[in-house]
């Protein structure tokens, strides 16, 4: 009697990525895209150990005294002043259009990519596959970003998906937008029918401004101001940067403003470890908005202080021509 041996069918290449089949099915259901093309894209993506290493040591793990020194350097400040002066008309037009102070738009680019000089070396697809499919601590977030990347229309990206480069977290362009931020906040400011956050300065600047505006930026509002606690100041439990107490209440609890502030303004208090000991700051709605870009209060403070330094330099007297 002949024995019939079971057929051994090779697993499809995309089985190499855990959960890839399910992901592709979801994207196909939502968009109608060709599953073969989606699988071909994902087949070409590689798990990168260097990405897993990078996410385990974020800059935000440093104390404020060290973190500040990364971004508040003379070179970064001077480059921001030059960038503002070079693009003043466009910046001030977009700032007025969205109600966002132009120096904060510039400061975001300064902190994120040194004004477009360093937009990231990792393939975005590799980054999001690595973190979405191989990094359990934040797999839900990054898998959603990977799915969004695969679902974005072609005219929302600076090039083909498999050619895009960015940060180890999959953020791309001068403003380091994640795919969901491209979907929700990026704009075609130059009106060419294409959102390009890598090569179109109007799109780049307007997208950052729109991000702030949509998250509740208050035109002309304060960002942060120094606070001086007395020896009996109430210890506050601050979970995030949401303004939750009035300045008047915080004063009653022992936090004195160094400058005049509206007693009825809603604020929070942030504590940072400075070079000379703890620093206390009142932070307002616009500070909270910056933390929607990056949740770290230190990030928001770095953006704030860089923006202030840029504005001070821009408003200074232009050097005389020799």
Protein model, in words:
The protein has 14 helices and seven strands. It has 322 residues and is of the alpha+beta class. The strands form two sheets. Strands 4-6-7-3-5 form a five-stranded antiparallel beta sheet. The N terminus is likely disordered.
Mean pLDDT: 93
Cα distance, first to last residue? 102 Å
Work out the number of β strands: 7
Order of helices and strands: HHHHHHHEHHEHHEEHEEEHH
DSSP strand content: 5-15%
> Low-confidence segments, ≥5 residues, pLDDT <50?
1-15
Query: Structural class, from helix and strand content?
Result: alpha+beta
SS field, number of helical segments: 14
Largest sheet properties: 5 strands, antiparallel
InterPro entries: Lysozyme-like_dom_sf, Lytic_transglycosylase_MltB, MltB-like, SLT_2
Pfam family, one: SLT_2
Domain Transglycosylase SLT: 22-308
Protein name: Lytic murein transglycosylase B
Task: Give the gist of this structure.
With 322 residues, the chain is an alpha+beta fold.
List keywords for this structure.
14 helices, disordered N terminus, alpha+beta, two-stranded antiparallel ribbon, 322 residues, globular, MltB-like, Lytic_transglycosylase_MltB, five-stranded antiparallel beta sheet, 10% strand, SLT_2
């Amino acid at each position: 009697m002949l024995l019939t041996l079971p057929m051994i069918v090779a697993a499809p290449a995309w089985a190499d990525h855990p959960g890839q089949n399910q992901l592709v099915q979801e994207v196909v259901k939502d968009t109608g895209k060709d599953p073969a093309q989606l699988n071909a894209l994902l087949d070409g993506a590689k798990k990168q150990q260097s990405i897993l290493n990078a996410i385990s040591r974020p800059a935000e793990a440093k104390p404020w005294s060290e973190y500040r020194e990364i971004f508040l350097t003379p070179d970064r400040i001077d480059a921001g002043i030059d960038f503002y002066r070079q693009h003043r008309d466009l910046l001030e037009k977009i700032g007025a259009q969205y109600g966002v102070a132009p120096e904060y738009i510039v400061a975001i680019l300064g902190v994120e990519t040194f004004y477009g000089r360093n937009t990231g070396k990792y393939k975005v697809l590799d980054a999001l596959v690595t973190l979405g499919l191989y990094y359990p601590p934040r797999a839900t977030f990054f898998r959603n970003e990977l799915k969004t990347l695969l679902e974005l229309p072609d005219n929302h990206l600076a090039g083909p998906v498999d050619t895009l480069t960015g940060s180890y977290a999959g953020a791309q362009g001068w403003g380091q937008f994640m795919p969901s931020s491209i979907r929700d906040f990026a704009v075609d400011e130059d009106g060419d029918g294409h959102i390009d956050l890598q090569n179109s300065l109007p799109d780049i600047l307007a997208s950052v401004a729109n991000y702030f505006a949509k998250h509740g930026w208050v035109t002309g509002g304060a960002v942060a101001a120094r606070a001086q606690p007395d020896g009996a100041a109430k210890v506050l439990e601050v979970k995030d940067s949401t303004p939750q107490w009035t300045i008047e209440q915080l004063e009653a609890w022992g936090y004195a403003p160094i400058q005049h502030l509206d007693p009825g303004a809603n604020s929070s208090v942030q504590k940072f470890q400075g070079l000379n000991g703890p620093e206390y700051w009142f932070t307002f709605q616009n500070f909270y908005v910056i933390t929607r870009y990056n949740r770290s209060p230190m990030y928001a403070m770095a953006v704030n202080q860089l923006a202030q330094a840029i504005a001070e330099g821009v408003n200074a007297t232009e050097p005389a021509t020799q």
